[in-house]
Amino acid sequence: MGSKAAVLTSPLHNLPFDPEFVWAFEVGLKSDWLQRRLRMNFAAFVYDYQDLQVRVPASAVSVSIENAATAEIWGAEVEFIIKPSAAFQIEGNVAYLDAKYNKFSVPADFDQITGAPITDASGNIILQSLGGNRLNRSPKWQISLAAQYVWAFDNWGDITLRGSFQSQSSVFFTEQNNRLLGNSGWDNFDARLIFESRDEAWQINIFGKNLADDRYISNVVDVNPLLGGFVNLPRRWGISVRYRY
User: Cβ neighbours of residue 34 under 8 Å, at least 6 residues apart?
Assistant: First the structure.
């Protein structure tokens, strides 16, 4: 069982909120096979959150942090490392995540003039249930693969060629799970060629990142009436030189 500490006031709307609590259950297995040429690791977990600290719209133009939700997160992860030879290595990781709010309600709408939440005839705030929605920034799938080969030269050093691939499925940036305020997932390819001298004094690194030039929204800021977003960096190349003395 774990907890996240209480805070005196929310910097967003000046409201106090309490600790959040989580029951965490995990199981895993680490194993080596084929004279340590193959390593396989597995992990599975369940997190049960109570009094989850979440952002709740307080008016049309402000939000507060409140203990307003419960959530359940479960998932599994498999990673492996294969070494066909001393010079060649392949590694990978696959993770699945199911992260949803069990109970979470927010004001359904706001008065366009006063900014206050809309109420019914009895003065109660009309609520919209977000139970069943996915948690922010919680992709269902994440995959990474990499391979590298090392040429070792006795007299002057090593040359390493490495390529890697990362993939992530869609995410939402807000609790409402608005598809316009999220991304549909992304793929990323990187590569690098590294020379390191035998005494490890010199290192020359030639690299390329986001080689497929996959562009996507990496973050969204939604504070009514302002809406902004950030885009990941484009394809880029570079070289770095390091010397230790």
Answer: none
- Count of CB atoms situated within 10 Å of the CB of 24: 12
157 is written with which tokens? 């050093």
Structure confidence by residue, pLDDT tens digits, 195-240 = 999 999 999 999 999 999 999 999 887 766 667 889 999 999 999 9
- More confident call, 175 vs 146: 146
Burial class (CB in 10 A: 0-12, 13-18, 19+), 150: middle
pTM, rounded to two decimals? 0.82
Neighbouring-strand partners of residue 228: 221
Picking from 168, 174, 149, the residue whose alpha carbon sits closest to that of residue 57 is 174
| Long-range own/partner contacts, residues 185-188 (CB < 8 A, 24 or more apart) | 185/139, 185/216, 186/214, 186/216, 186/232, 187/212, 187/214, 188/212, 188/214
Given a cut of 50, whether residue 71 has pLDDT beyond it is yes
Question: What distance in Å separates the CA atoms of residue 104 and residue 71, rounded to the nearest whole number?
Answer: 9
